Amino acid sequence: MWAATWGQVFAGLGLAPPRAALRLSTRFYRPAGKRDTIFALSSGHGKCGVAVIRASGPASGAALQRLTGQQELPPPRAVTLRRIRDPSSAETLDKGLVVWFPGPRSFTGEDCAELQVHGGPAVVSGVLQALGRLPGLRPADPGEFTKRAFQNGKLDLTEVEGLGDLIHAETEAQRRQALRQMEGELGQLYQRWSEELTKALAHVEAFIDFSEDDNLEEDVLAGVDTAVQTLQREVTGHLQDGRRGERLRGGVHVVIAGPTNAGKSSLLNLLSRRPVAIVSPVAGTTRDVVESALNIGGYPVVLSDTAGLRQSQDAVEQEGMSRARDRCGNPLAGSPSLTQARHRLHLTSCLDSLGRYHGYKALDLVLAAEELRLARRHLGKITGRVSAEEILDIIFRDFCVGK
Fold first, then answer.
1. Strand ranges in 207-305 using DSSP code E only, listed in sequence order
2. What does DSSP say about strands 3-5 and 27-29: parallel, antiparallel, or unpaired?
3. 25 lies in which domain range?
4. Span 144-173, pLDDT tens digits
5. Cis before 17 (ω within 30)
6. Can you tell me the distance from the alpha carbon of 140 to that of 143, in angstroms, rounded to the nearest whole number?
7. One domain for residues 134 and 46
8. How far is CA 10 from CA 1, 4, 5, 26, 286, in A?
9. Is residue 161 domain-resident?
10. Do 235 and 343 share a domain, yes or no?
11. Which helix (H) or strand (E) holds 389?
C-alpha cells in the first residue's frame, strides 16, 4: 500500500511545503482491497409471510445468478419473480422476488442483492445455508450493513444513530424525531458548523504561512473572530434545549411518591390499565420500585411506583424508601439534553476550544489555530467526518497561493 505525506508531495513538485501542510500530516492511500460479501436475514426472526435476505459486496451479483440459475442479472432496482435454487444440488428452495442494487446506488454503497422469500423457518434456513456455501460469502456481523453504509459515505454517524432510534421507536413522537435525524437534519447542522470552522482555520493558517509574502490583510483575522463568535452563540443555544431530545428518546421518568396507603399503587394500575403493582390495605406493601412503560399522546413515559415514606424498623422497607428518595432526586441529573450523550460531550469540548481560541490569539496565533482545529475535530467526531485535506483546499482556493 503506497502512502505519501504532504511534505513528500510538495517535495516532488520542487516546492517548499507551507507550515500548515506539515502540521496537518495528511496521508493518501490507495483504496483498500475488495471486501468480503456479507449476507443476513434483514427482516425479523420467526414465522412470517415474507422474509427479506440481503447480500452486500462484490460477489453479491454472482450469488444472485447462482441462486436463480440465470446468466443475466435482473434490471437494476426492479422487482423480479424468480425460482430460488440451491446451487450445489439445483433443488428448488422457494419461489420469490429478487431485487438487484448495483453500487453505489444501494443502502451500503456496494453491489447488493435482496431476496424476498416466504418466511417459514425452513425456507429461510435453506436460503441462508445455500448462500453460506458460495465462495466469497460469509454471514454478516451485527450492524455490518449499516457500518458499510457509513464507511462508503451513504450515512454519517448521526444518521446511523437516527436509524437505530427509528428501529427501536415505540411511540409516534419517537418515530418523528428519529426519522428527522435519520434524514440528516442534525448532521447537516453539524456539517455546516464544521465547514465554517474549516474556512476559519484555513484563513488563520494562510495568515500564518503567507501573510508576509502575499500581503494578506489583518481583516482576514477579524473575519475569523466574527465567525467564531457567531458559532459560539449557535452552539450554546443548541446545548440549552432543556434536554428535549434525550427525554423523548429515552422516555420521561415520572415517580409516584408519598406516604404509605396513599393510593400510589392504585394510581399506577389505573394509568397502566392493568394490575402492575400489588394493592393491599396493609401499609408498606410496595417495597421496591415498580415500573410501567406508557404511551401518553405519542410520548414515552416510564411511570414508577415506590415504597411509601414513613418511619419503619423493617430493613427491607427501609431499602425500598431509600430507592424511592433516589427517583425523586435532582431533576437535572441523568442523561444530557441531546439525542446522544456523545453529542453533548463533543459540542461542549468544541465550545471550550472556541473560548480558548480568543485567549490564545493575542499570545500565539499557532496555538489559536490549534484550538480551532480541535473544535473542528470534535464536530467531525459527531458525524464521523474528519478530514484535514479540506483546509488546504480552502487555503489555495481563497488566497490563490502559488499562482
1. 252-256, 290-296, 299-305
2. antiparallel
3. 1-30
4. 998 899 889 898 888 888 888 888 887 777
5. no
6. 8
7. yes
8. 20, 10, 9, 12, 74
9. no
10. yes
11. helix 389-399
